[in-house]
Amino acid sequence: FERFPMEAVFGMHNWPGMAVGQFAVSPGPVMASTSEFRITIRGKGGHAAMPHTGIDPVPIACQMVQSFQTIISRNKKPVDAGVISVTMIHAGEATNVVPDSCELQGTVRTFTLEVLDLIEQRMRKIAQHACAAHDAQCEFEFVRNYPPTVNAPAEAAFARKVMASIVGEANVLAQEPTMGAEDFSYMLQALPGAYCFIANGDGDHRAMGHGGGPCTLHNPSYDFNDALIPLGATYWVRLAHEWLNQPREAA
């Protein structure tokens, strides 16, 4: 925005499950931050029949996974949203061998950076201390990808007004926050704005043979509903027109 100065930014995401002809927008957090973690537990391999001769990383990993969930239930405030999902655990290649390492990977989602700071700090401490308690070594990586997507109140209200002029107030829904993440969040950190949803329907528009699965995002059976094109185009034209027609102070 240094090269191309802007007053505000607006974005839109196609959203399956909402009825065609509807929009959704709300102030505040509407999409979560996303971070990835990789934890490697370095133990000591051995024979599975003589586990006392090694340092088994697998039960340490199991202890970590269980303990991470206490961050969600006991460390953060219950009213603050947060998700820790361990989605990959890799260890060993044979049934009779205690592996010398175990790797955990997963994702963390939050609606505020304060909760994200808390989760990262607690995860790091739990991982390091769990390994230390069993004489294992811990390698902890935590990568922050996108921050939370947070709509500014004034811009969200402006977007709602434009939507209502197109489809009527009854078809402009409150935007239910989702733990999905969005890189538009970086723009909203720099400028006030709003990120909204436009309904895609429930999949009834799909031609036969397109796919039998749910018509949801990031899914092989997803299909964009072309009926949205006039609505989306009208929204953008009217949004720009109404914004530029607002009274402005003389330069």
Extended strand count: 12
> Which residues form runs of ≥5 with pLDDT under 50?
none
Largest sheet: 6 strands, mixed
Q: Which CATH class of the largest domain?
A: Alpha Beta
Total DSSP helices? 5
Q: C-alpha Rg, in Å? A: 24 Å
Oligomer: single chain
Number of domains: 2
β-strand amount: 25-35%
Order of helices and strands: EEEEHEEEHEEHEEHEH
Question: Could you walk me through the main structural features you see in this protein, from its secondary elements to its overall organization?
Answer:
The structure is a single chain. This protein has five helices and twelve strands. Strands 3, 5, 7, 8, 9 and 11 form a six-stranded mixed sheet that branches. A four-stranded mixed sheet has the order 1-12-2-10. The protein folds into two domains: 9-27 and 152-244, Aminopeptidase (3-Layer(aba) Sandwich); 33-146, Alpha-Beta Plaits, CATH 3.30.70. The two termini are 20 Å apart. The model has no long low-confidence stretch (mean pLDDT 95). The chain is of the alpha/beta class and 251 residues long.
What characteristics describe this protein?
2 domains; alpha/beta; 251 residues; Aminopeptidase; six-stranded mixed beta sheet; 12 strands; Alpha-Beta Plaits; four-stranded mixed beta sheet; 5 helices
Concise description?
31% of the residues lie in helices and 29% in strands. It has 5 helices and 12 strands.
Write the layout of secondary structure elements.
Blueprint: E1 9-15, E2 23-24, E3 28-42, E4 46-47, H1 57-75, E5 82-91, E6 97-98, E7 101-110, H2 113-133, E8 137-146, E9 149-151, H3 153-167, E10 172-173, E11 178-181, H4 185-190, E12 193-199, H5 228-244
Parallel strand pairs: 1-12, 2-10, 3-11
Antiparallel strand pairs: 2-12, 3-7, 3-8, 3-9, 4-6, 5-7
